[in-house]
Specification:
Length: 395
């Protein structure tokens, strides 16, 4: 590299995230020859375009960078060594790409800016903040805790909702098969005996006849109606409005709301603690929450903060934040206590989400099971009532 003095060279190398052990003066011609010889053939000819990473791979990337930071190794050589150990090909290419760019003389800021589309935006900001403060290992550890908690909350919500949804779908399938294939067999028996049918049985037979004759048309109409309703809500309602309506659904709504607020508070605490500008921290935390309502509210609140408003006054004037969040924002002026309050709030919201998950299991699942069983019992009784009447007549 070119530098006026050894001190200037040392400063440039440290700005790139490198740990300097030895500096040696060389003339320009020797430096060019050495640089050519130092690049391995397989690396110089390899494409180092960073692939777009999934959420799981982004977590792994943060973990690898944190390991390098804690070990004290130079960032470039440490990432290159770790890239040989990860099983994912995309992850390997991403680490090699970042390592190659840093080793080629580019600053960490430049590398992160170039790969901004392939990494979560808050991850790049946290890496830069960690390098500036010298606490990259601690920052990455906090980020890993955030991403793992977010994955755990998402997994818990998915498992909670999967059982009722699967049960409802199975019930619909069983009832459809019963009406389409079993009821016509009973209908033939009843017609052969010429017995008078109860009203409930006549209703079920009518449903079966309609399904047999217009089944495909009924399915198409229902699907079209669902798609049309979805399109209408997309066109007429903003994403934030749709999210707020979703969060008002009994039992399920608070589960989605508490999960998003927990993620929002936890990431905001990490960003604020690492001296990220409050407007930028709000925007990143809102985006990372995956909640359209919080994302819009955070963007609007960030704009208000940049115009000179306080967090509390801004949040009070917006419908996107619950009253609890407004009270939490009052701690903004307390300095170092604000991140701790945000973490405590994240823990509270996470605990409430867990409680709400149990509420879904206690309230919704039995309701779905009882409803599904009741409908099946009604179908069975409707078919056996004429048989009972027929046996009574014969006896």
């Amino acid at each position: 590299m070119r530098a006026e003095t050894p001190e200037d060279a040392m400063a440039q190398l440290e700005a790139r995230g490198l740990k300097v052990d030895l500096l040696k003066d060389v003339d320009e011609e020797t430096s060019a020859d050495s640089a050519t010889d130092a690049v391995p053939t397989d690396i110089s000819q390899e494409s180092f375009e960073t692939p777009k990473l999934s959420k799981a791979e982004s977590i792994l990337a943060a973990e690898q960078i944190g390991q390098v930071a804690v070990s004290g190794m130079p960032l470039a050589s440490g990432l290159m060594a770790l890239s040989e150990e990860v099983p994912s090909k995309r992850m390997r290419r991403a680490l090699k790409s970042i390592s190659h760019d840093v080793a080629a003389g580019r600053t960490v800021d430049e590398v992160l800016d170039e790969n901004a589309a392939n990494l979560p935006p808050h991850l790049g900001v946290l890496i830069q903040a960690g390098l500036k403060t010298g606490n990259l290992g601690v920052v990455m550890e906090q980020y890993l805790m955030f991403t793992r908690n977010r994955s755990e909350i998402g997994r818990r919500v998915l498992l909670t909702l999967s059982y009722p949804v699967c049960l409802i779908l199975c019930t619909i399938g069983i009832n459809f098969g019963y009406l389409a294939w079993v009821v016509p067999l009973f209908k033939k028996i009843f017609l052969d005996f010429g017995t008078e049918l109860p009203g409930l049985t006549m209703l079920i037979i009518s449903l079966s006849d309609a399904l047999s004759e217009f089944g495909i048309a009924i399915v198409v109409i229902l699907v079209a109606a669902a798609v049309l309703a979805w399109l209408i809500t997309v066109v007429l309602l903003r994403p934030s409005t749709r999210r707020r309506l979703l969060e008002k659904i009994p039992v399920f709504g608070p589960l989605f709301s508490m999960s998003s607020l927990s993620q929002f508070c936890q990431l905001l605490a990490i960003l604020v603690e690492n001296q990220v500008r409050m407007p930028d921290a709000l925007r990143m935390a809102g985006t990372a929450s995956g909640n359209a309502n919080l994302r819009e509210g955070s963007n609007r609140l960030a704009d208000m903060v940049e115009e000179g408003s306080s967090l509390t006054k801004g949040a009070e004037s917006l419908p996107h934040f619950p009253t609890q969040m407004t009270n939490i924002f009052r701690w903004e002026k307390r300095g170092d206590a604000f991140p701790d309050v945000l973490r405590a709030a994240a823990d509270v919201y996470s605990a409430r989400a867990t409680i709400q998950t149990g509420m879904v299991a206690v309230v919704v699942e039995p309701f779905v099971v009882i409803g599904a069983a009741s409908f099946i019992v009604v179908l069975v009784i409707a078919m056996f009532l004429p048989l009972i009447k027929l046996l009574n007549d014969l006896s």
